[in-house]
Design goal:
Chloramphenicol Acetyltransferase; 6-stranded mixed sheet; 2 domains; disordered N terminus; single chain; alpha/beta
Amino acid sequence: MILGSIPARTCRAWLLRVSLRQEPCFFSSVPPQPVPPLAQTLQGYLKALEPLLPPEELSHTRRMVQEFSRPGGLGPHLQEGLERRARLTKNWITDWWVQWAYLESRQPLPVHSNPAISLPRRDYNDWRSQLVFASKLIAAVLDFRAKMKTIPGPKHDYVAHYGSSRRSPTHITVVRNYQFFQLEVYNSDGSRLTESQIHGQLLRIRSQSWKTDKEPMGILTSEHRHTWGQAYNRLLRDKLNQESVQMIETGLFSVCLDSPVMRISDEKYASRKAAQILHGGGTYSNSGNRWFDKTLQFVVGEDGSWGLLYEQATAEGMPVTSLLHHILEYCEHPDPKRAPLVPLPMPKKLYFHIDREIKWDIEQAKQNLDILINDLDVYVFNFKKFGKELPKKHNLSPNSFIQVALQLAYYRVHNEVCPACDIASQRLFRGGRTEYIRSPTNQALKFLLAFDDRSVSREAKLELFREAVDAYTVLTEQTLNGHGIDNHLLGLKLQAIEEGLSIPKVFMDTAYGLATHWKLRTGQVPANTDSVMCFGPLVPDGYAVCYNPQADHVHFSITAFNCCEDTNAETLSRTVKETLCDLQELLEPTV
């Protein structure tokens, strides 16, 4: 059964995910996302399988693809349906993609879905400076909101938008020691609170949230979606709980005032910091300071750690990094406006009535979240030997360079190639979201097999390396221009379901299952700051690798699950460092 066919309010796992996504007012001038030609996508699919499958399995899949694509057959029929859908909708794939990729997933949001962005530690180590910086951050986000002029747009779990209603929200949520507060951030005349006003209100919140013996209500949002959906319905039977949850859900964004990251060593601090922003660090740390359904949660720690956690059903990396860049610029040149001499109402503490059932729900959620957190291995490092200027100097795409390096590192650790996906933006198109760039390519496979072979000359390796990097660059350009293959394949499959047809055999083939078992999930999130994004692997035996290339260094985060004996984030990280150094030596030999 497709979850999207159920009215949202009757779905047992119904949840609200609050959006701050802006719909551009110039959207009519943005081109529609194309439906790629069927033959092109199927040819690209088969080509992507070549490095992964033995010849006999590839021949079997090739016959299935030929049957699917024959004139007058199922493939052309579904293609016509997609082309018709493209003419009648703003974007033929986005609603389906959001539904399939995020809203139908029953996995917990922390680790499995919500990405975190960890930023360089601020130069302070006490609660007073924490509140000063949090005040600037809140003022900066409100300033960014004013510049955007509008807020929100797009629905299961389901997406709820409060910013576009007749009366837009005027409050944010601040959470400290597991206690939630409604903080009005606009004066009665509609003007934004100044930094000093916000700082005064945060001091009031601190004075009301000394104790940490409160039940961590936010932990409930970390549960398996079906479990949280049931707990959500139980929670909302009480009027007090309804009001508190509504305030959290309708707030513009959340600010989490965290206690310090547990520090073991300077070497591991960056990894601990990223993990804390991603999931809160556990039920004995700051996980109770989260409401994982919120689109934007800014985390500010007492020790100078800070970052952003976001729910990506309605938000993506690039717009979020633009927001963070604005925050950093604002903090360097804050608005000197003086606070008007008007009394402000006390921030409103949000209370919950916790009966035995809800108490049991919280205890179960605490156990499950700690299991999930203990299973996640996070390793963050700054590779300092070189950055994107090195590949540029040799006329190579920096992103393609890193992608081939990641493939080689994986091959060195596991002695095999694997299905890998790199996240690419589709924001060139009206309503576009993201698409996958698939690897490895045939050219990459040839390079991987040759690189550690001493019988192959350096010149031959260099030529194979260039071919692998260039092949990935071509794939990237095709995908950015709307000619990736995975959205199209997904659309064909969902079009069949939409028409009440059986799922085509080509999608039931073992090759399709193998090709979409993403053991290497990657994402480049370039930013003007030394930030790094962090998220969990897509599959239990996989890795997630995120990187931010700067001119002379590259920030990496690598995650894996401890439950899989074959994967280890630190091992892959060490191999990535070694591999990048080896590739530098290949390009610029020292002897």
